[in-house]
Amino acid sequence: MKYTKRWQKQAVRGLVFWGLKGIALISRLFPWQWGVRFGGYLGRASFHLLSKERRTAQANIEMALGNERSPDELNRILRCNFENLGKGLIEILNMSGLRREELEELVELEGEEHLKRAYAEGKGVILITGHIGNWELMGAFLAHRGYPLHVIAAPLYDPRIDEWINRSRALFDIQTISRGTPSSSRKILTVLRRAEILGLLIDQDTRVEGVFVDFFNRKAYTPSGAASLALRSGAATMTCFIVRLPGNRHRISIQKPISLISTGDHQKDLVLNTALFTRSIEDYVRHYPEQWVWMHRRWKTEEASS
Q1: Residue 20 pLDDT
Q2: What is the rounded average pLDDT of the residues 213-237?
Q3: What are phi and psi of 292, to 5 degrees?
Q4: In the 8-state DSSP scheme, what is residue 204?
Q5: What 3-state class would DSSP assign to 199?
């Protein structure tokens, strides 16, 4: 029985991996923008095919925005969300073939002065973001601009896909730190000691050290590593986001450095600062709800009652 389940899991993973390879190959037959449009069609098809993910996304959108948007608007957001995720998938799969001059044409950057100033201070920079827009493209663009970027990422369920994505990042000189590996803590501290830039996504409920903070007026288990690093390292800490614009271009917005809250109570400070970061992410999701990963079970972990 165990062998059968293991074989089934490996078979499904193989289908997904080779399916992604096939999608990437087909989309590369066309110019970049045509490939992205192809991804949009895939996203629309996925809306109908991935019923479990659609139900999760719909429940999350209704819970978060149901009091602010009409049912028709919520349905539009849901459909656009799948379309945007399909476009983002194609962009990520084909990013390795993107020329640097094409990258400059696709992405505009605002708030770079905040990052330049913080990086010049020589204490390291912690960049906090969420799964909004094409976050992989944001990393590629910032690294392309000459910033020494390291990203913390959870290893994916299939090592082949994980290697594929890591190799794509490396082409843009992005160093990936696999979360939870024996050397990850040492690598993270080395990045900050060298006064380089560390990127973290903190908007998902994952099996890491975390705290409960408000996210759309509901307690959500949130990684506290960014707050812990920021408090201990003295590195400049700021949020940055990327959103898709009309014509499938993108805009990166870098916010001013955040003034951390320090009460002297470390656990309390973790909660307060994680809440601070999360409010910034929520504000962006509220403005661009079509571009966040609503199919993620963001509120799956419940806070223990006292």
Answers
A1: 83
A2: 95
A3: -105, 160
A4: S
A5: strand
What digits encode the pLDDT tens for the residues 164-215?
A: 888 989 999 999 998 877 778 889 989 999 999 999 999 999 888 999 999 9
Asked if pLDDT for residue 8 goes beyond 70, the answer is: no
Report the C-alpha dihedral over residues 48, 52, 57, 63, rounded to 10 degrees: 130
| Phi then psi dihedrals of residue 94, to 5 deg | -105, 5
What would the DSSP string read from start to end of 272-285? Answer: HHHHHHHHHHHHHH
The two most distant CA atoms of the chain are separated, in Å, by 59
The pLDDT of residue 25: 83
Angle between helices 2-27 and 32-49 in degrees, nearest 10: 140
264: left (phi > 0), else alpha (psi -120 to 50), else beta? left
Sign of CA dihedral 91, 96, 99, 101: positive
What are the distances in angstroms from CA 224 to CA 205, 207, 210? 11, 11, 5
Q: Residue 149 has which token pair?
A: 């970027």
Tell me the C-alpha distance between 188 and 11, whole Å.
35
| Distance, CA of 85 to CA of 79 (rounded, Å) | 10
- Token readout for 240 is 């940055």
Cα 192 from Cα 35, distance rounded (Å): 38
Q: What is the phi-psi region of residue 75: left when phi exceeds 0, alpha when psi lies from -120 to 50, beta otherwise?
A: alpha
CB 128 within 8 A of CB 200: yes
